[in-house]
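Bit of a strange request maybe. I'm writing a small parser for structure token strings and I need a real example to test against, not something I typed by hand. Could someone generate the tokens for this chain?
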Amino acid sequence: MRTAATTQEPCIGIIANPVSARDIRRIVANAGNLQITDRVSMLMRLLGAAGSVGVGRALMMPDSGGVSAMLIRSMAREHELQHAFPKLEFLDMAPTTTVNDTFKAARMMREACVKVIVVLGGDGTHRAVVRECRDIPLAGMSTGTNNAFPELREPTITGLAVGLYATGQLSAAQALVTNKLLEVSINDGERRDIALVDAVISRDRFIGSRALWKMDSLSAVYLSFAEPQALGLSSIGGLLQPVSRQAPGGLAIHLSDDPALRKLQLMAPIAPGMVRPVGIAHWQTMPANQAFAVAQGAGVVALDGERELTFGSGDRVQITLRENAFPTVDVATCLQLAADQGLFRHFSPQT
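Reply from user aminoacidic:
Good idea to test on real output. This should exercise your parser:
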């Protein structure tokens, strides 16, 4: 198993989380569960499309959940039929089925000089990749519970866009777009982390099951973007004061069920099939590079829907919006440019 690109053959990286979308929200809400066969099917469609436009190699994170094993069998059949699939290689690492796999895989893919990292997972998986590797473009495929960051899209189309960029048929200026994120700092950087979509302050004093879904424990929501059609905690901002992915600034919302503090109540879809009332006390725009101090004395910071950082009464917690923080493949623009430039046209020779 090689882990470095030894030729100029276009190579993409793939990080597929075999256990995304299996948190407690699947139990308390009416959400489905993506099976291993579904994940492999998505990867096969992506790889077939990428191979059709010239991607010759794919470097993938191994797993012990069944995705890698099933994908190897499926790829072998395609190669026997001489279909234009990339050569699939796996990183030389032992999977632990923890987020450390994603961290390590992202580092190894940077060392291997992959052109793009395709991420199959939810908001948390995408966050882990960006936390470790902000300089390599991402292409997201949604398999999580709420999926505010990765857009829902047919993997075939994502594979075409990834392939057009990875093979140089579209430049970085044409194919990529930059994204915002939230930086969380405790005690002036003593502890740091990021969120791609939402950083939420909870009154809980423990990490527990990680996934956040009880609204009565929340005191504030900080958002890098907030789309009206979103599912999850970012839907609070999306239905209150939308902020697009590419618009400057973010949104800070303070929550309260106290009638003396509450300005309005908002109904928001916080999980699949779960629409709940949210008491809104105050909200304001978050300008880039301006640190917002968390007023709550102790609790937990949840990042993209999962509890990650505990803090006490003596801790100073700040949240800052960063713009142009990391690149992603703009799938729609890639396909539009490919059509405009005739990249999929192949004329028959004149007889």
